[in-house]
Structures are given as structure tokens and as C-alpha cells.
């Protein structure tokens, strides 16, 4: 489940920026870009849970 959090946080950052563009409120630009940066930091953190299948394929000891 944790490997899907990267995609979720990238999507949330995109949504927060688009929603920020739709509303014309005083501090909305700063808030939406701030949320987008926070979401991208979390997305970068959760990339360590994405499995690396190429390492298993290239391992010479993994020959069947």
C-alpha cells in the first residue's frame, strides 16, 4: 500500500495547484503552492517503498 502513496501525493499536489487557480482569494496562491510543495516532499519520501524489479531480474544468482 505504501508504494502507491507516491502517486497519491503527486496527484494531490496537482489537484491543489489547479484548485488554487480556480479561486480568487487573497492568500490562495501561497497556500496552494505551499501544499503542493509539502505533498511533493511526502511523495519523494515514499519513493523508497517502490519495488525495484530490475534488480531482481539482473541478479545472476536468481537464474532458474
Provide an overview of this structure.
The chain crosses the membrane at residues 30-47. Keywords: Membrane, Transmembrane, Transmembrane helix. This protein is an all-alpha fold and 64 residues long. The protein has one domain (2-49). 66% of the residues lie in helices and 0% in strands. The protein is built from 3 helices and no strands. The protein has helices at 5-22, 28-45, 53-58. It is rod-shaped, with a radius of gyration of 18 Å. The mean pLDDT is 84.
What's a quick, concise take on this entry?
By secondary structure, this protein is mostly helical.
Features:
64 residues, mainly alpha
Topology record:
Layout: H1 5-22, H2 28-45, H3 53-58
**Percent helix among the residues?**
55-70%
Cα shape: rod-shaped
Radius of gyration: 18 Å
Give the percentage of residues in beta strands. Answer: under 5%
How many angstroms does the end-to-end distance come to? Answer: 29 Å
Domain module count: 1
The count of helical stretches stands at 3
On the 0 to 100 scale, the average pLDDT is 84
SSE order, one letter for each helix or strand: HHH
Could you list the spans in which at least 5 consecutive residues all have pLDDT below 50?
Answer: none
State the major sheet.
none
Strand-pairing-aware structural class: mainly alpha
**E-strand count:** 0
